[in-house]
Structure prediction request, 372 residues.
Amino acid sequence: MVRFGRWCRRRLTGLVAGVRQALRACLWARPVVRTHATGTGGDLVRSRAQLLAENALLRQQLLVLHRSVAHPAVTRADRALLVLLAGHVRAWRQALHLVQPATLLRWHRAGCRALWRHKSRPRPGRPPLPAETVALIRRLAAENPLWGAERIRGELGKLGIRVAKRTIQTYLPSPRARRPRGQTWATFLRNHAHETWACDFLPVTDLLFRPLFAFFVVELATRRVVHVGATRHPTDAWVAQQLREATPFDQRPKYLIRDNDGKFGAAFARVAATSGITILRTPIRAPRANAVCERFLGSVRRECLDHLLILGERHLRRTLGEYGTYFNRMRPHQGLGQALPAALSAGTRRSEGPIRAVPVLGGLHHTYERAA
Prediction:
């Protein structure tokens, strides 16, 4: 009996210690309150409505927890109710245990977005026009390009159809979609390519990372390189001199395309006007307006400059001169149907004999011809 009594006392002591530990754990799980006295005092100060809202908030969380112990499943109705109840509880952060406060605020923002999306939805306006009337408006606009909305409105009035001017404007094509009265830039270049040249600069960096500038003049119709220049200081006077050298013996185009680079100054414009050349400036940020010259500059980089180390101005001028000769006389062009800009005459071509390779630019490229 003595041993049995000792065993019972030990079991009872362990049970009391377990209960105390469980009570401490429960105390840690309670809302953050300093003491029972301060918590009771705070509850006495709060109104009955606040206490009821807090109880409802806690009960709603308990209902959600009873559904799934492992992972509570919160529905849209639960979210809306929790947000609504939290708005009436001053200490909602301490009373909230199911989710984080940031999650509740995110639900509130989502609710605000949904509310304003619902308020901003398009309202039903005036009834739409019948399909026959819309088709008639578009037919009148297509068959009479000079008619405006007011003129079409008058014509519809003659037919007994009353439509407002603004309604007619809704079904008319946009003014930007109409075909321009004059010819387009592409049509102009196609019609005047044989008498149009284009010029542009190509920035280059030498072996010592110093800037150089190459200047090209290209004929649009034949893709022929008319002139090549190179300098470290592309002033207005230097560019004007390049234009003089590109048009010797009265060999000049009718139009010359250039971009809005500041290197083209008053001297360049004066030399062009003296020679009877009309300057065509490309629109800003429109490289396709000078597409032939831009594509040629890309060929110069890909086929020549990207594979060489330029030592200086003279080296650049000599290299570009050799490449220009190769470009004009030996390199077929896709834009010309694989023809050459300066094609050899039919009498100088041979159809028989061994084929030999002639190196260009130190073997960077080769041109092939039949040996005599």
